[in-house]
Amino acid sequence: MLTFCTCNRLAAAPRAWLWPVLLVALAACGGAKGADATADVGAAQTDVATAIDAADADSGADADSGADAAVSGDAVASDGDAGADAAAIADAADVDAGTDAALLPDAADAVAGTDAALLPDAADAVADVTATAADTDTGNADDAAADAAAAADGGDADTASDSGSGADVDAAVAGCAAAADCPGAGPCQIAVCGADGQCGLQDAAAASPCSDGSACTAGDSCNGGACVPGATVPCDDGKPCTIDACDPAIGCTTSDATTACEDGNACTTGDVCAGGLCLPGAPTVCTDGNDCTLDTCLTATGCAFVAGSAACEDGNACTVGDTCKDGACTAGPSATCQDDTPCTTDSCDPTNGCSFSANDLPCDDENGCTIGDSCHDGLCQPLGPSDCDDHNPCTTETCDASSGGCTHTNNTSKCSDGSSCTIDDTCASGGCVAGAALVCVDGNPCTTDSCDSAKGCAFLANSNACDDGDACTTGDTCGATGCHGAGVLACDDGNPCTDDSCNLSEGCTATANSAPCNDGNACTVGEICGNGVCLTGQARACSDEDACTSDGCDPVSGCVFLAWAATACDDGNPCTADSCSAANGCVHINTAQACDDGNACTQSDACQAGACKGSNPVTCSAADQCHTAGTCDSATGTCSNPSKVDGAACSDGNACTQSDACQAGACKGSNPVTCTAADQC
């Protein structure tokens, strides 16, 4: 309820709306404080008069200021009854609304509309306050209700009267008969109707369920009249290549990531997310630069370097037979650097190995037919031979290396008989004998060959077929200027991995290239040429993003997606309906069908929350008075039948036994009744 109990702050407000608000506020103050607050009401009325005079002074003082003052004065001079004062003020509001029609044509409108920004919901507030003021009046409740109704409806103050015509409106706006008459409340508040007929709000019970309007929280509950958000809804789908988030309007969302990931294979690097999957990167290059280890890669742990025992090179050229041991190269024995040559100086350099440097020392070539022997370029060389030449080409001069004497022996060496048309002339008996006739062939198909004894061979041009020496021409023919080709050789070998050309000396050549190619395997991509052949490309990534298919690749047809068998998602649980979702894979939905919990002692088994639960257990009652209730065997469903302890009381149904007791599960009578003769007759 809107209540104004301090009027001094309103004194400087515009007079156009001041009167109705002040009057209603005074009435509310009177109603709130009761009859014991007469002095306070009188002071408030005096403040009203002062505020009105101040407003009149600010606006140039209208002709109605006297009347206003009179009304206020009458109110102060009243008998002190707070209800009477409120009624007087309310009536004064009616009079003033009419008297100041020129300045305030519609007082209620001014309150509810003109200053809406200063007094939100003014009409409702005035209606509530007026109704309260009316309750403190001299008993004319209908008059106050009429005034409140007129103010709430924005009616003209001139038309508002004390006739009681607004009573129904007042009840509809401010009063209630039951909680159903009160406006709705928030999710954690309950509308109530008080004993005074006024609507109010009551907080819902703490921990009552509610909704905070966000799909990203669960288990929201009430606390102190407000809906407190519950726990955050978990949206992690456990997949490293999806981005999980939550939209308050729709809940969990998932999108594909493009970040780096780990495909579980330590022999690939640069794995990256694509299409919600982790695709393998390039193969890991495993090399430690050590010739004494075998470099390999294990998918579980990555690079592995295994020590070997192969031959190696320790980097010292002065050792031989180096071998690997414990992953390192071990030096072998020292190299032997000795060439047994007197004209070299022998040594070894760790970088270059054995070195035999030539010297220029004197030496002996052990030949008596040479003179001035000395070392040159690592060899023992003579300064010159002994002179034994007789100038006959058909004798061979020799010198005895041991004695140094000359001899002249006929030879069969080649010689010249003086004719240019013989060849292979040969010595015989110390003279030159003519050899075979000279064959004049210049190897030029474009000449005719002949021989002149004085000049030798002669070669005359012709027009025969020939070879121009250019392997890239065809149809070569001799002409005046030599041999010339008539056409060009075709060199296309039909191989896309070679660049075909023609070499003048060799003819057609095919040079390997690195152009894109097709290796004929539909399961590879990015093939390129190498060494004249099409190299195998990278493995094609085959994924249909369907969790219910097995993705593979056929070298002929390419990617193959095989649907899972109907039993692939069977979890072996009779209480779930198993299926496969393309997005999530196997799905297991709980059912409520009949089942067998494996316990023969339950008679009504049914699926509950994904498990088989038994109910209606078998009741094992005692078979008779000498047995106790048995227990049920879960395997067979049969009840046991245990006997009572011997001596337990029972009745064998025979009145002639007086001491009946259970024995071995049966009721046995004893101490029979003795029937003696009543008398001697």
Secondary structure elements and their pairing?
Elements: H1 15-33, H2 38-59, H3 65-76, H4 82-99, H5 107-114, H6 122-135, H7 141-152, H8 167-174, E1 189-193, E2 199-203, E3 217-218, E4 221-223, E5 226-228, E6 231-232, E7 242-247, E8 251-256, E9 268-269, E10 272-274, E11 277-279, E12 282-283, E13 293-298, E14 302-307, E15 323-325, E16 328-330, E17 344-349, E18 353-358, E19 370-371, E20 374-376, E21 379-381, E22 384-385, E23 395-399, E24 406-410, E25 414-415, E26 422-423, E27 425-428, E28 431-433, E29 436-437, E30 447-452, E31 456-461, E32 473-474, E33 477-479, E34 482-484, E35 487-488, E36 498-503, E37 507-512, E38 524-525, E39 529-530, E40 533-534, E41 538-539, E42 549-554, E43 558-563, E44 576-581, E45 585-590, E46 606-608, E47 611-613, E48 661-663, E49 666-668
Antiparallel strand pairs: 1-2, 3-6, 4-5, 7-8, 9-12, 10-11, 13-14, 15-16, 17-18, 19-22, 20-21, 23-24, 25-27, 26-29, 27-28, 30-31, 32-35, 33-34, 36-37, 38-41, 39-40, 42-43, 44-45, 46-47, 48-49
Helix pairs in contact: 1-2, 1-4, 1-5, 1-6, 2-3, 3-4, 4-6, 5-6, 6-7, 7-8
Protein described:
The chain is of the alpha+beta class and 681 residues long. Helix content is 17%, strand content 27%. The chain is built from eight helices and 49 strands. The strands form 24 sheets. It has a three-stranded antiparallel sheet with strand order 25-27-28, with no helix packed on it. α5 crosses α6 and α7 packs across α8.
